[in-house]
Design a protein that fits this description.
The protein is α/β, with parallel strands linked by helices. It has helices at about 60-65, 70-75, 80-85, 90-105, 110-115, 135-140, 160-170, 185-195, 250, 255-265, 280-290; strands spanning about 5-20, 25-35, 45-50, 120-125, 125-130, 150, 175, 200-205, 225, 245, 270-275, 295, 315, 320. The strands form 3 sheets. An 8-stranded parallel beta sheet has the order 5-6-7-8-9-10-11-12. Strands 1-2-3 form a 3-stranded antiparallel beta sheet. Strands 4-14-13 form a 3-stranded antiparallel beta sheet, with no helix packed on it. Strand 2 and strand 3 (about 45-50) form a beta hairpin. The protein is globular and about 60 Å long.
Length: about 325
């Protein structure tokens, strides 16, 4: 067996700008891992989005991948990668590439190989970037036909922002994502504003590692761990603090770990969100295998781009269809 691993960096413009509490950007920079089986010429591929919040860069992720060239040539498996690579973006791209290749070689869909049921059409959240209450109300009004909106918040002024979004989209279900921007002195007022607006879920209100307060206060709305959880190893620390977890393949380090994380989290009583970084349909496709096992789906990355891959996932408004074999899996 001889496999060839290659790594490419690609850039996709974002439609306008994507802004959260940590900053704003106008393009998605992704790293693609491709694995070719030289015996049959079949290729599997996977995409990841390096994230500076976790100490990643395009260069560091590319280097991590290139360090596995010899191991992949020797036939390293997805399960073996769990022991030799840390959870994160690099392992995600390679894990998904190997999943795709395995599906093609076996002539079986990736969901079956993963021990899951066939993916179904799902409703994805649609993200509203952080801005002034006025701009966020206008954005909400433009997206008011979508059934589920995810609202990026940023700390100071968040009660006004969430109230403005509710005015703009009075019928949509709302999720808010503070991206660690709330503090002990503001959390009560922010929670009250979310209750008033009928928010259904709050993502990562306090900084990871400084969230013990969540076990001491009333949680009138379920709280979801994002930055506070990457893979199964982090589940113990969430006890009594969180009600749900956001599974992102770029954090978990691939679909292989994400499937095991979903099973274990569900067994512990956590609700599940399947989320994403801002990437293309290639990054969303493996996560779609978990969508109908989740309580919330947030796989709108391609909807935020000015252009996507061709072929890409099929979206009908906020409905997202399972990936075709020509894309992945």
């Amino acid at each position: 067996m001889s496999r060839r691993l290659s790594v490419a960096v690609e850039r996709f413009p974002i439609a306008g700008a994507f802004t959260i509490a940590r900053g704003s950007r106008t393009e998605a920079v992704v790293v693609v891992a491709s694995v070719v089986e030289e015996a049959d010429g079949l290729k599997g591929w996977g995409e990841c989005v390096p994230y500076a919040r976790y100490g990643e860069s395009v260069e560091s992720v590319s280097d991590q991948l290139l360090a596995q060239v010899e191991a992949i040539a020797a036939g390293a498996t997805r399960l073996e990668l769990l022991d030799v690579m840390p959870a994160g973006a690099a392992r995600n791209a390679l894990d998904c590439a190997l999943f795709d290749l395995e599906a093609k070689q076996l002539g079986r869909p990736a969901w079956e190989i993963a021990g899951l049921t066939a993916p179904q059409v799902a409703t994805t959240a649609y993200t509203l970037s952080l801005g002034t209450p006025e701009t966020m109300e206008a954005a909400a009004r433009a997206a008011a036909s979508r059934p589920l909106l995810k609202v990026k918040l940023g700390g100071e002024g968040d009660p006004e922002r969430i109230a403005a979004v509710r005015r703009g989209a009075p019928e949509s279900r709302l999720i808010v994502d503070a991206n660690e921007a709330w503090r002990p002195g503001t959390i009560d007022a922010n929670l009250a504003a979310c209750v008033e607006a009928g928010v259904g879920l709050i993502e990562q209100p306090l900084p990871a590692g400084d969230d013990a307060l969540l076990s001491e206060i009333a949680r009138p709305i379920p709280i979801c761990a994002d930055e506070s959880l990457h893979d199964r190893a982090g589940l113990d620390a969430l006890a009594a603090r969180y009600d749900a977890i956001n599974i992102k393949l770029d954090k978990a380090g691939g679909l292989t770990e994400a499937v095991m994380l979903a099973h274990e989290a569900r067994a512990r009583g956590f609700s599940i969100m399947v989320g994403c970084m801002v990437g293309t349909s290639l990054a969303m496709a493996p996560a779609m295998l978990l969508a109908h096992h989740a309580d919330y789906v947030d796989l709108d990355g391609p909807l935020l781009l000015a252009r996507d891959r061709d072929p890409g996932l099929v979206f009908e408004g906020s409905l997202i269809h399972p990936p075709a074999a020509a894309l992945w899996g």
